[in-house]
Amino acid sequence: MSGPGEKIANAVRGVAQHVGQRVGEAAGRRSGSPQQTLTVGRPAAEVAALWRDPAAMAQVLGELGTVDVVGDRWTWHLARPGSDEPVEWRTTLTDGGSPRTLRWADPEDGSDGASEVVVVLRDAPQDLGTEQVVRLSLPLPDLAVGAAALGLGYRARALLLTGEVPTITPQPASRGAAK
Amino acid sequence: MRALCWNGVNDLAVETVDDPTILNPHDVILKIGLTVTCGSDLHFIDGYLPGMRPGDVFGHEFMGEVVEVGSQVTRTKVGDRVTVPSFVSCGDCWYCSHDMPSLCDTTNPNAALQQPVLGFPSGGIYGYTHPFGGYQGSHAEYLRVPFGDVNCFSVPDGVTDVQALFVSDALATGYTGADFCDVQQGDTVAVFGAGGVGLMAAASARAMGAGRTIVVDRLPERLDVARAQGSEVLDYSQVDSIQESLREMTGGRGPDSVIEAVGMEGHGTGIQQVVDKAKQAVRASTDRATALRQALLACRKGGTVAVLGVYGLTDSFPMGVVTNKGLTIRSAQQFGQVYVPRMFEHIQRGEIDPTPLATHTMSLEDSVEGYRIFKEKEDGCIRAVFRP
């Protein structure tokens, strides 16, 4: 059924989608790919080295998943909210360009909107270090991806600056023993 | 271990929970010596501040003894008697290295929960909601302290456990507010709220050179403490207008600075207070910002208002007063790590003494009753101190 209300709703959805696409294009990224930029007080080479280090990435991922690395082939096992079965995602890492860009993606998936993890590193002004842009398009629900973009960037920065990732696991504020 | 848990709005219980363990190499485990109620806890106990989960161990103002250190802790030693500021600082990020430790960029494990509300996440804090990190709180026998070398401060000789306890938060917060006022020799500083933070703000302002401190509250026993510590007092329930009273007390000039130490559940008089209470009761507003508005009105032109009270999303904020009076507003959660050494020196010289804040001391097992007494301000209670 297509009443007046539904037509209006469709029109609003269309406008919103169009605006979203244009905003995304204007920001130099695909619409729908959550992005979080943080400034990290370290040179770009150090930030890139951390993202290329499988052991560091294991810490950064935390409860978000695990990753197995052989050469430039990275196989991710990403936790899926509400499920015990992780999503397996096979990627290849490419690294280069100016500004330096690290990109994990499946080279055989050329579809529009294919999954990817992109980290762009550019010099921050005033000797503040590096602007680290984390952009995610993952085979997970949007909300989880949005939170992951900040979580990964935040943890990477913490690990670089302090040598550890902030955690309350397995010791959250809540009770853990019998009452 | 035994700990005080938040199980829901106005639902607290002392329970048995897991002991904390070292999770990161810079962690320290503390045996809590003393831990104390704070007015800011009442906001989530009363249900005005979201982000708690059933079973959360809360509390963020404490001192104790180091019983275990992580592999990369070098300065802090087992056996040290220490105080710990309530916000967790890493010591390495831009904010920590620019003397703003509560704004730490690395210590909030739940940054993604907080960023949508604040725009940028703050540092973590012990026992104060999950958006603020979800760390275990101090109303317990043991506590994990991240970055022990940055956050644990050895208590020097001549400073008692009780004094060290309040260095953790009430004094640290008050001292931060007084420092924000850039107190000049002989200045007049008004302090709204004679709770622990307000009393310590007044004491700090005097230690920094204020000629007069005027503490505003309605509770006689708290005003007595303020008076005994060297402040003049103003019982707002006995006057028609705080603003006019302060203006008359200061030769028509107004206080050079005003420190607001009340927060989102403030009391007041008049029609505005009725409106604020009604809006808060139906959750149309998170805050009763009575004291904040009064502070802005009372301050002299060109003066500074330091806001220490905890607020949510305040509406009815009189921005025109700020602009037209040329006020400077400064606010932050305490920068304790910056000030602890100075605070200890003030205490050792007898210039500041937080001891009178500890009006009630009891076992952790009695802490539910302790919070009731504190919340109801019964029996002259300023703060209830728990000894696990």
How is the secondary structure organized here?
The complex is a heterodimer of chains A (179) and B (388).
Chain A: H1 4-26, E1 35-40, H2 44-52, H3 54-61, E2 65-70, E3 73-78, E4 87-96, E5 100-105, E6 116-123, E7 130-137, H4 142-162
Antiparallel strand pairs in A: 1-7, 2-3, 3-4, 4-5, 5-6, 6-7
Helix pairs in contact in A: 3-4
Chain B: E1 2-8, E2 11-16, E3 28-36, H1 39-45, E4 56-57, E5 62-69, E6 81-84, H2 94-97, H3 111-118, E7 142-145, H4 148-151, E8 153-154, H5 161-167, H6 170-180, E9 188-192, H7 196-207, E10 212-217, H8 220-228, E11 232-235, H9 242-249, E12 257-260, H10 271-281, H11 290-298, E13 304-307, H12 319-325, E14 328-331, H13 336-348, E15 358-363, H14 367-376, E16 383-387
Parallel strand pairs in B: 9-10, 9-12, 10-11, 12-13, 13-14, 15-16
Antiparallel strand pairs in B: 1-2, 1-4, 3-5, 3-7, 3-16, 5-6, 6-8
Give your account of this protein's structure.
The complex is a heterodimer of chains A (179) and B (388). By secondary structure, chain A is α+β, with helices and mostly antiparallel strands. Chain A is built from 4 helices and 7 strands; from the N terminus they run αβααββββββα. A 7-stranded antiparallel β-sheet of chain A has the order 1-7-6-5-4-3-2, covered by helices on one side. In chain A, strand 3 and strand 4 form a beta hairpin. Chain A is globular and about 50 Å long. Chain A starts with a helix and ends in a 17-residue tail after the last helix. The N terminus of chain A is likely disordered. The model of chain B has no long low-confidence stretch (mean pLDDT 95). At the A-B interface, helix 4 of A face strand 2, strand 4 and helix 3 of B.
